[in-house]
């Protein structure tokens, strides 16, 4: 096995001190161009890779941000992570991306791992709805930002979208198109996002002078395409099918669309469908999907910037903030007016 080259060997081969090699790696502006070129040539020739653990022990801070999301199979969270990664990379930081898969137990394991690795900070979409995992992690004194979850500023920084407003946008659009038989298909109602979108949907009904009972609710076990297909099959089995469906995310909506298409039900001729998130696949579906857009990239960037502010040179004057972004409705071909 080839022996790993250390910083002392790089310094010897380049004819400089260990401190000069360290400056080339961390503070290149302090080193002359000719010396930087010579040291970089030795690094390239020997394949030297600096030890992040050693650097962290020396300076006391990590260059790694951790991101823990609910579901990496959901393109929405991929977009959030990409936004955060770009913001981090612009300041020379790296990103560790992990997936709790909606499991509070897995979330706890990852948070423990982040603490062991002494990451610089964590962007977290909580799976544990009780808040126990976050409270335990807070004891480690590692900064974190809630993503896709609004919390009071007293509890930390957060970046979210007004999902009540989003639910209202979706159902208001369907009601304006003449629909009075609307079904809301959600994921687990233990998730605040699913509850808030239903609250917004009910607000649209009240605004139109309709009773809350006018909104039928189908709860799914997960927020994925397979659950959407299952929910669609349940709707197909009803004696009186709804004329419109509002889904808590686009994956559910795409599953419902697939179920309808497979059964020969015309979308939007027989059933209008509205999704949520406006992931890339929404516009590319066989029937382009009307969806409530959430600014995923902006959420990720904002959350990463908050975390970097809290862990940067001005950390002493940092104050926690709760940023709530606004959604927008994107109308495509999956919805129509009943009289059209």
Question: In words, what does this structure look like?
Answer:
The chain has 340 residues and is an alpha/beta fold. It folds into three domains: 7-50, Orthogonal Bundle (434 Repressor (Amino-terminal Domain)), CATH 1.10.260; 62-161 and 296-326, Response regulator (Rossmann fold, 3-Layer(aba) Sandwich); 163-294, Response regulator (Rossmann fold). It contains 13 helices and twelve strands. It has helices at residues 7-14, 18-26, 33-46, 52-59, 75-89, 104-117, 132-138, 163-176, 192-207, 225-236, 250-262, 280-284, 296-311, and strands spanning 64-69, 94-99, 121-124, 144-147, 157-161, 182-186, 215-219, 244-247, 272-277, 290-293, 322-325, 328-330. The strands form two sheets. A six-stranded parallel sheet has the order 2-1-3-4-5-11, sandwiched between helices. Strands 7-6-8-9-10-12 form a six-stranded mixed sheet, with helices on both faces. Helix 8 (163-176) packs across helix 9. The longest helix has 16 residues, at 192-207. The chain is elongated. The N and C termini lie far apart (73 Å).
């Amino acid at each position: 096995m080839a022996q790993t080259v250390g910083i002392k060997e790089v310094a010897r081969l380049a004819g400089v001190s260990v401190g000069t090699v360290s400056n080339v790696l961390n503070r290149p502006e302090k080193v002359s161009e000719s010396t930087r070129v010579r040291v970089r040539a030795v690094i390239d020739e020997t394949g030297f890779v600096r030890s992040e653990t050693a650097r962290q022990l020396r300076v006391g801070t990590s260059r790694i941000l951790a991101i823990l999301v609910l579901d990496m199979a959901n393109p929405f969270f991929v977009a959030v992570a990409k936004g955060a990664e770009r913001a981090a990379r612009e300041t020379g930081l790296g990103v560790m991306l992990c997936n709790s898969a909606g499991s509070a137990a897995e979330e706890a394991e990852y948070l423990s791992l982040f603490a062991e690795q002494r990451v610089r900070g964590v962007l977290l979409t909580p799976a544990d709805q009780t808040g126990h995992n976050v409270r335990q992690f807070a004891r480690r004194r590692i900064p974190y930002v809630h993503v896709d979850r609004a919390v009071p500023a007293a509890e930390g920084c957060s970046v979210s979208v007004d999902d009540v407003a989003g639910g209202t946008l979706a159902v208001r659009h369907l009601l304006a198109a003449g629909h009075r038989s609307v079904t809301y298909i959600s994921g687990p109602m233990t998730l605040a996002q699913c509850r808030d979108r239903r609250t917004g949907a009910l607000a649209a009904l009240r605004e139109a002078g309709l009773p809350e009972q006018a909104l039928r609710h189908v709860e799914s076990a997960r927020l994925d395409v397979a659950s959407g297909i299952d929910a669609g099959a349940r709707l197909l089995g009803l004696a009186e099918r709804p004329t419109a469906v509002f889904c808590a995310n686009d994956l559910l909506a795409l599953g419902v669309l697939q179920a309808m298409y497979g059964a020969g039900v015309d979308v939007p001729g027989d059933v209008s469908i509205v999704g949520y998130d406006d992931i890339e696949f929404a516009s590319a579906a066989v029937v382009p999907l009307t969806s409530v857009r959430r600014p995923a990239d902006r959420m990720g960037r904002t959350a990463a910037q908050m975390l970097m502010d809290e862990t940067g040179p001005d950390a002493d004057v940092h104050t926690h903030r709760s940023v709530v972004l606004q959604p927008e409705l994107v109308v495509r071909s999956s919805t129509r007016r009943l009289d059209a």
